[in-house]
Amino acid sequence: MSLVNFTAREITCKIVYYGPGRSGKTTNLQYVYSQVPADRKGRMVSLATQTDRTLFFDFLPLDLGTISGFATKFQLYTVPGQVYYNATRKLVLQGADGVVFVADSQLRQLDENIESLQNLQANILEQGVDARTLPMVLQFNKQDLPEELILSPQELDEALNFRNLQTFPADALHGVGVFETLKGIAAEVLRRLSQGGGGARRI
Amino acid sequence: MDLNPRFRFEGFVIGASNRLAATAARTVAESPGSTYNPLFLYAKSGLGKTHLLQAVGFLALERQSSLRVEYLTLEEFVERYHASVAAGQVEAFRRSAQETDLLLLDDVQFLAEHREMQAELLRLTEALQAAGRQIVLTCDRPPGEIADLDERLVSRLSGGLLVDIAAPDFETRLAILHRKTAERGVEMPPGVLETVAEVGASNVRELIGFVNRLIAFQAVGGGSLTPEAARALLTDELPAAPAAPPPGPAPRLPTRPVPVEPDEFSAFVSVVSTTVAQTVEAWRSRIGEAVLRWQGEGYRTRRLEQLLFSEEIPDIAGELAQYAARVEELRRLAGEAAAFDPAAAGHACFRDPDLVEEARAFTARVKDGVEPPPPPSRGLSFAEFIEGAANDAGVRAARAVIAEPGKRFNPLFITGPSGTGKTHLLHAVGNELATARPDAVIACLSAQAFTDELVQAIDAGRLEWWRRRFRRADALLLDDAQLLAGRDATQEELFNLFNAFTDAEKQLAFTADRLPAQLSGVAPRLTTRFEGGLVVELAPPDRIMRATMVRRLLAARHVTADDAAVEYLAARPADSARAVQGLVNRALARMDPASETLTVQAARVAVEGRSQRPSQTQAISVVVPAGLDPVMGSREKVAWDWPGVADRMIEELR
């Protein structure tokens, strides 16, 4: 995907929220959607099951207007977290400019987090992209839960952040940390522009 | 009204919205009267009509300082007309207006209020066009939409080129802001000007107002301005941005209402803006700016745009310098081509730095294609010209012309009977002018050749080429102007050339066998112009001049002659140089081939033996055998005229 089109004066960023099932990826998008001013609201596409599990993916287009002369658009996607939807995850991941890994802070979900992270690495690699060059941030969601049920940001950092990525503690349900995460990944993605290439480098 | 020196092409920011108008204006300024006439520019207020109009005046004057350029608003034009009516000087007003080489008329939409002026303007436009003079008009609407405008005037004004100027787009607005802040020596923090350009302004004046406000804000606050503060400062004052969401379709430009308290989404957008400003607008912005700049100047920027898609960071400084060097080369080539053919400079290859090689080849073709007009004949030099009492005035006038071409006697009109040296003097002047300025192009040819070339050019559809060929000459010397009689098209072309030459102070010279006033079949507008310079008459050579001629002619044939022979030949009645030459030739033909000296006897035999007298009866040339020479030395002993046969028979019968 061409991130910056200088001829058309357009910036388009595709950001994928990745993570294990029920970690709060769709919640992140819903909160972002709720904060978009009425006159700029696009349509959020969500294909969910009856139990609100993401069946295929969520898609939230964000039109940020003209920034520095560029019509700037962010496209936020989520993947279905369940293990058996890997084909869909690969599809959504294609052409991503940045990834937000939404980890579930609950102690009992640690393995799922690790498994999902490994799945992410594998899927990225499969697309011929060097995972080290793909902009990514970590969000430790559900930090509002009782302390005894969750791991602290430091503990999660040690367990998951072997690439020394930016991390954001969050409570997506109430919006805490949602925009901080989005700002974080946006900055990472846009910063890559100054390095001369858009998106991740292929290997 | 004087032109405002701020309004030049250099200060005009060109974007997609006004490129056509600017190009047309420049073309008109470079060759007034020859391309789009009239040029009619229309646009809403504050989009640069007056700027372009005055820029045309400046550029035209830069190119040709002798042009008479007049810039007037319609109101001033009306006032002048009214004043002339009041003073009973309408004719003087018309004459003066019609002699303007380049008339720039601003704000003609007010014609609707001045019905009486419409007829006057129509008359003036027709007169200016007929005389090949340029008129450029500006208006806030196309001619067809000016209320109550005379149909004839509508079609007349629409007959040249109608161009509108649209509101500037983002890139142009940004370029204007950059230029305006740079002009004031103010530097704005990154992102501020972009924000101002985004806020948008319907015209350039409003945009300049924004800059003023920002500068004032910065001066008062002392702090540095952020893009958000700039937006708040400007949109707060925008009437179209009320605090509440506006009813109906949202206005396009104030994209986000200024929040009372910052919400998360706005904060996010703000962060993205800053990041984009810091990252996207880093090295790519340098190229982006260069792209805008060069596009603004009308150059294609494909080469630079490709850099934006490169994976690695290119050598920006090197690439930009290389691009600038190519543009410089294109400019040089365009200038070179324009010297031969002003229209050629507008060729697309001069606008694309990828096509430098093509531009080079094209320039070479232009240079080859436009051969200079015929030069003066090298053989007819001033040194060879025999001066004397008969042509003293002509020679002095010619010297004055050579010393100050185009300044003193323009045109120089040389008249006199055939064979008195008019052609020689004309070519001699041409040769001297060419020697004084080796790079000057001197056109020296006969009126017949001039007509023939014109006919060929019309035949081949190359009339413009023919005109350019002569227009680029620095002096036009036309022999035998009497041959122009009855050649209307030639006279028309010569008339236009004449005006162009005198305006540019280029020398003109003509010869004819009669005075200008006696040139029947030549339009009075030409003959009066011929008389407007200096008319000199060359008389037939006197005896002293004829002697000099004889000596020169003999010397040229390596023949010596005794003084008596020279005197004898010079004393023969000869009213032209050609007659003298004929005498000398006859004498030489009679000369003993073994001898190198011409004697008076030989001259006399040759001249008198061959002379012919007019006769009412049958003339029979007498061949005098060489042996009879001593006997028949005297004219009285020779019967030149034989009586008719019938007469002779009657005589014999008696």
Task: Tell me what the structure shows.
The complex is a heterodimer of chains A (203) and B (654). With 203 residues, chain A is an alpha/beta fold. Chain A has 5 helices and 8 strands; from the N terminus they run E-E-H-E-E-E-H-E-H-E-H-E-H. Chain A has one domain: P-loop containing nucleotide triphosphate hydrolases (Rossmann fold). Chain A has helices at 25-35, 86-93, 110-126, 153-160, 178-194; strands at 4-5, 10-18, 45-48, 54-67, 70-78, 98-104, 136-141, 166-169. In chain A, strands 1, 2, 3, 4, 5, 6, 7 and 8 form an 8-stranded mixed beta sheet that branches. The longest helix of chain A is centred in the middle third of the chain and has 17 residues, at 110-126. Chain B has 654 residues and is an alpha/beta fold. Chain B folds into 6 domains: 9-165, Rossmann fold (3-Layer(aba) Sandwich), CATH 3.40.50; 170-281, Helicase, Ruva Protein, domain 3 (Orthogonal Bundle); 286-369, no CATH class; 389-537, P-loop containing nucleotide triphosphate hydrolases (Rossmann fold); 541-611, Helicase, Ruva Protein, domain 3 (Orthogonal Bundle), CATH 1.10.8.60; 613-654, no CATH class. Chain B has helices at 19-30, 49-63, 74-86, 90-98, 115-130, 151-158, 170-183, 192-199, 204-221, 227-236, 264-278, 283-296, 302-307, 316-340, 356-369, 392-403, 422-436, 447-459, 463-471, 488-503, 524-531, 543-556, 563-571, 577-590, 600-610, 645-653, and strands at residues 39-43, 69-73, 102-106, 134-139, 161-165, 412-415, 442-446, 475-479, 507-512, 534-537, 560-561, 597-598. In chain B, helix 7 (170-183) packs across helix 9 (204-221), helix 14 runs parallel beside helix 15 and helix 22 (543-556) crosses helix 24 (577-590). In chain B, helix 20 links the parallel strand 8 and strand 9. Chain B has a 5-stranded parallel beta sheet with strand order 2-3-4-1-5, sandwiched between helices. Classes of the chains: A alpha/beta (203), B alpha/beta (654). The interface between A and B is large, with 36 and 42 residues.
